[in-house]
Amino acid sequence: MNKNRIIKLIPVFTVLAGFIVGGIIIAATGSNPFTAFWNLIQGCGLAPKASYAGKKGMITDLLSFIDLWTPMILASLSVAVAMRVGLFNIGVSGQMLFSGFIATVVVGYSGLDAFIAKPLVIVVGIVAGAFAGGIIGFLKFKFNINEVVSSIMLNYTFSYVISFFINTFLVDPVSRQSKAVSAASRLTLKDVELGAYKMDIPLGIVIAVIAVIVIWIFFNKTVSGMELKAVGLSNSAARYAGMSVNGNIMKAMMIAGALAGLAGVTYYLGYFGSIQPRVLPATGFDSIAVALLGNNQPIGIVFASFLITVLSKGSTYMNSASGVQAEIANVITGIILLFCACNAFIKWYIANRDTTTKKGFKRKSKKADKDGGAIAEADDKKGEV
Fold it and tell me: What is the pTM of this model?
């Protein structure tokens, strides 16, 4: 098989390996792994369940799945943009939380009409996210502070500061979360009755699709996108070519932050209608696995985020239907991430396997020639004597 084709199939092998190991773990607990995986699919509305509650059905489960899938796509794009310039944006969760909180305070409690509130939520999410991501970019190029350290610190800074404001001023005494935002400001239309069903219609999926297209065009068809890729491949080469390395780092982190901001508003003012204090969204961390699995490509991220969201969303129904612990889905996600971390080595090995073998053969041949020459020279001297 062609080496390039094998390299392209590595993510598929990664997913299969994750499910095989997960299946072994499920079987070890005494459950049927095939039934458990089928329950995962059923829990996402991709397959029918045996029964449904009133006004619920396969379509309502599917729309709820899409509602959760939306912020995963946007968060994963954020990780991918940062990785294009060689940065590891592990602060997506904090950026999501910060953007969701700002949008909640500015728009969610404003009482504005839906015609104004919904677009304003998107704008606030982009601006707040770009600001949060820009802080990391600024610390990187100004003081050379590693982006992993600064983003982790900002995650907890945002979490504790926002928790203080929620618990002090905005807490709901019943749910112990922030007060629910207005229906007009939410990016999900809740409890819409269509026919015999009552469903939630996610408007944010439109934003996610547009973001995927825009990011693909940006990186493949624009000069700015090519510069970001050049900086990611080699800072010194990009600087020698006259590109602003620091400027591109700042630009990339602001774009990444803006995407994380969109993920935040579709999560907190879409899928959820409130914010839980002192809890960072797991979507921000799962998006790292998605970006790696999707090879940092927008189209690949769509499929990878679909898979990881299936594991996340379907785990609850898998637990209730099969008795398999919902945490098994997190184990499978972790295994997939572990195998993804080995992708770079596997690609290098496949791409250089023949070359390495030939080099080893040449070294052996040269050694043999050298030894043979030495023996021949010794024989000649013996003959002369």
Answer: 0.88
